[in-house]
Structure formats: structure tokens, C-alpha cells
Design goal:
Elements (H helix, E strand, L loop, with lengths): L2 H12 L1 H12 L4 H33 L3 H20 L20 H6 L2 H13 L4 H20 L1 H42 L1
């Protein structure tokens, strides 16, 4: 996987367009200036957690005695399930915040931006080729940076796309993510088969 495809994969898993309506509903009671501060704070928290998993991923896999193939197959399954939820969204809230409460770390930074599938993907990238950590870091920064822009201009995007346009974009991203998930799964099986 090259840096650009890694960035696209991470961006699709972060799903800023899918998370945007949820984020807006969580912070709509705050004044606009405070909204931006909370949003940036949560995005920086998420980036810190993601970098921690990117650089400690190989050690975590070694400590747990997991093979790269197992992580690839598990990551493919997780991505597939996330993508299905993007294509067929479930009713009900995901925030779990009390009325008027300001989100702090949970649920915006973790698990909505830095969710288990993003963290598993970062560990997988680090384990696949630890000599390319600069590439993976840049891929993470690109995906995160595009997500920041989308979140900061979420009000404008919501007006441009509308509720239906946003749902259509999320479903399209879900379809792309399903293809990536199946590829990860097949790569994991092929690598395992070759290692026997």
C-alpha cells in the first residue's frame, strides 16, 4: 500500500462526513466560538491517540504475539462491519451525552474519530512495513487534515449537500470501504496461506 491509498483508507474509516451530523448535534448548544475550540481540541486528542497507536503498534502486536495476517483479516472484518453500518445506518443516537454537556475525549475523539478500526489499521500499517513510518505518518496527517477541514466547515457543507446529499456521500464512502475491507481480508488470507 502506498502513502496516498493509506491516506484514503484512513480518511474513509474516520468517516468525517458520516460523523458530521452527530458532531453538530453534540455541540449545537455551544456558541460558535466555543464550538470551534471544542472541535479542534477533540481532533487534536484523536490525532495524539492515533499517533500513539501508529508508533506503538508493532510493540503491541509483539506483546500480544499476533501475526500480521491475523491483524489484516481482523481489520478487514471490522472495516466490513463499519462499512455496513455506513450503508445501512441504524436509528438512535450514538453520542450518549446528557443535555447541555460538552464532549471531552469521549465520544468525539474516541471512538468517533480515533475508533477501533482506525487504530487497528494504523497498527497494521506499522506492522506491514515499519521502515515506512514517515509515509504512514504523512498518510495519517493527510486523512486527519482533510477531516479537520470538513469538520470546521461542517455548517457550510451541511447547507450545500443537504441531509440527503450527506447520507448519499456516507453510503458511497461505505461502498468504497467495503471494497478496501474485502481486499484487506483477502490479502491476510493469501499471506497466511503463503506462510504455511
Amino acid at each position: 500500500m502506498d502513502m496516498l491509498s493509506a491516506a484514503v483508507m484512513l480518511f474513509l474509516i474516520m468517516d468525517p462526513l458520516g460523523n458530521m451530523p452527530v458532531f453538530l448535534s453534540m455541540i449545537k448548544h455551544l456558541d460558535p466560538k466555543r464550538r470551534r475550540i471544542v472541535l479542534l481540541r477533540e481532533l487534536v486528542f484523536a490525532l495524539s491517540v492515533m499517533f500513539a497507536f501508529l508508533f506503538a503498534g508493532e510493540q503491541i502486536l509483539g506483546f500480544l504475539n499476533l501475526r500480521q495476517e491475523a491483524v489484516s483479516i481482523a481489520g478487514g472484518v471490522i472495516l466490513f462491519l463499519i462499512a455496513l453500518k455506513m450503508i445501512f445506518p441504524q436509528p438512535g443516537g450514538v453520542a450518549g451525552l446528557a443535555a447541555g454537556e460538552e464532549p471531552f475525549l469521549v465520544p468525539m475523539a474516541i471512538p468517533m474519530i480515533a475508533g477501533p478500526s482506525v487504530l487497528a489499521s494504523l497498527m497494521l500499517l506499522a506492522n506491514q512495513d515499519s521502515s515506512r513510518m514517515l509515509d504512514w505518518s504523512l498518510a495519517l496527517l493527510i486523512a486527519w487534515g482533510i477531516s479537520v477541514v470538513i469538520f470546521l466547515f461542517s455548517g457550510v457543507l451541511l447547507k450545500l449537500l443537504g441531509e440527503k446529499g450527506l447520507k448519499a456521500m456516507e453510503r458511497l464512502m461505505g461502498m468504497l470501504l467495503i471494497m478496501l475491507a474485502v481486499q484487506m481480508f483477502l490479502d491476510g488470507i493469501a499471506d497466511y496461506w503463503q506462510s504455511l
